[in-house]
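Notes continue from the previous slide.

Worked example: a multi-chain complex. Inputs as given:
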Amino acid sequence: MNAGTGRLHGDARRRVDAHLDEIEQVLQRSGMSRDERRNVLDDVETQVLEMLAARVQGDPSPEDVSAVIAELDPPESYAVGAGEPEGAAAPPTRISRLAVLGAFWGSLFVIAIVLAPIVALRVPVGAHPHRSLAWWQILWLILMVTAVTGMFGMTILGAVAVSQIRDSRRRLHGLGLAFADAVFYPLLALGAVLLVLATELKRFCFPVGHDTTVVVATVAIYFVALVAWAVLGWLFGRWAWGVATRRSAA
Amino acid sequence: MMRAWVVQLRKGLVELCVMAALRRGEAYGYELLQQLANAEGLAVTESTVYPILSRLTTEGCVKVRAAPSPAGPPRRYYRLTPLGIARLREMRGCWEDIQQSINGLLKGGEA
């Protein structure tokens, strides 16, 4: 038999098979599907036989096969990421837990606000102030404390998460969530401050009266406050995002 | 350090080179490998090219047909599908943009 028939026998065949088996193991460890592995192995086998046919007249000996295989890439070079410098493979990534925790903590405040009217309705009118607390009131207290501290917690955790993501060398992701954690309540606080200022301005300018002029002026003041909030919020957000992503890129 | 950079650079370009070579016409794996091996500086080998061909086949960018070979088992001839041609066009556009930008930067550095 010779390579020209496409068949090898004995030791020559076994050496080719052993090489193909080693490649298949590497490909399998790399997560390649069975079909893709078969395609690769077919191509490698064809190459081996083509190389043998080009250099050997008659039956290729096991040594001929070994000589050809020695010219090929070693099986381990089929591993995904082979040839890359050490440590260059993409590291496993996960979302920042602090960013997720911050978002959860901060959202408790919103939940508390939504639940507040329901709880208020459940408080019996004229209830004795010294009566022992019901279970749901204890839960409500815990929720309130957690929710109020959540405003600060979310902001702090968000800022820390941004910093961690920045320093993680792409091992952590979720920068957008962390950033939202960090700026959500500061932006809300900015809105609250502007609302208070607008209210004080209205009181200062129009302490009394409900005629059309006063109503129009009041609407105008609040509208300006709203626009100011949008503009200042956008500028602040843009600046903060620039800082976060610049640091992240660095 | 320099070697690592060259390896990374080549690695990113092999897929484009494989598809560009197939754009010239149908070829079997070893033939394609020889074509690419002749391209100076690319230094591609079978452990890079065959897995890419296999993946491109799975993705539908390349179609395979087997044909008898005088040298051994049937050869597997690869050719680009319309999807592959479209992807090659996109990759080529991207490559030309990058090349232009880098050339601009390098020329600016020489000035």
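Summary box: The helical segments of chain A are 10-29, 34-55, 62-71, 97-122, 135-167, 175-205, 212-249. Strands of chain A lie at 94-95, 172-173.
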